[in-house]
Amino acid sequence: MKIHSGLGKIGGLFGRRGEEGSALVEFALTLPMLFGLIYLAASLTLGMYNLQQLGNATSATAMAVGSDAGLFPNNDPCAYAESTIVASLPTWKSANFSYTLTITDTSDSSHKYTGSGTSFSCSTAPSMGPNYPVTLTVSYTYSWLGIPTMPFFHPGTSTAGTLSSSQSAIQM
Fold first, then answer.
1. Which domain holds residue 72?
2. For residue 5, is it within any domain?
3. Which of 7, 24, 55, 133 has its CA 20 to 30 A from that of 122?
4. What DSSP string describes 122-146?
5. Interacting residues of 101 by C-beta distance below 8 A, sequence separation 6+
6. Is the dihedral of CA 11, 12, 18, 23 positive or negative?
7. Alpha helices, DSSP H only, in 20-163?
8. Cβ(132)–Cβ(172) under 8 Å?
9. C-alpha span between 147 and 39 (Å, rounded)
């Protein structure tokens, strides 16, 4: 009898007894990975959506600058481009934009103007002739979905990136 009860105790150690909480432990181990995947998917989706919005606004602005040559307020195509981008994306922070506008004049010379925020001006820009290209590049410092405690786990990390779009238009 003593042999049988000793084997029963050993079998009880390796048998089904003691497995009652294993599902809870497995769930607790996989839950952070599941939330991480959901976070990654949401962050990338919002980033791609914002990139598409920036591309559409840049394209429309490049076409507006190309088609409205000579009709700019104060003869400043850069300020016109900046105000058009900001009006196209009203919920975005205008301080996070940086611009590059390249104008090709009638003598095939390229003139490049850069600026950021609300200080984008080129009042000395040459007059644009018909069938000459205008290229606008707009970059935006984008803040990804951030977990506030992330810097505590990885010092020096940043949740910011840059979205950039470049479009050309032909002056008609």
1. 46-170
2. no
3. 55
4. -TTPPPPPTT-EEEEEEEEEEE---
5. 65, 77, 78, 81, 112, 113, 114, 120, 122, 134, 135, 136, 137
6. positive
7. 22-67, 77-88, 150-153
8. no
9. 10
Q: How far is it, in rounded angstroms, from Cα 61 to Cα 136?
A: 8
How many domains is the chain built from? 1
Q: In degrees rounded to 5, what are phi and psi of residue 25?
A: -65, -45
Quote the pTM value.
0.73
Q: Residues of the chain whose pLDDT is less than 70?
A: 1-19, 69-70, 129, 145-160, 171-172
Is residue 39 in some structural domain?
no
CA distance 52 to 62: 15
**Which run of H or of E encompasses 100?**
strand 97-104
**Does residue 1 fall inside a structural domain?**
no
Contact 58, 166 (CB under 8 A): yes
Cα separation, 100 vs 98, whole angstroms: 7
Q: How many CB atoms lie under 10 A from the CB of residue 99?
A: 22
In a domain, 151, yes or no: yes
Q: Is 81 exposed, middle or buried (0-12, 13-18, 19+ CB in 10 A)?
A: buried
86's CB contacts (< 8 A; 6+ apart) are: 92, 94, 97, 118
Orientation angle between helical segments 77-88 and 22-67, nearest 10 degrees? 140
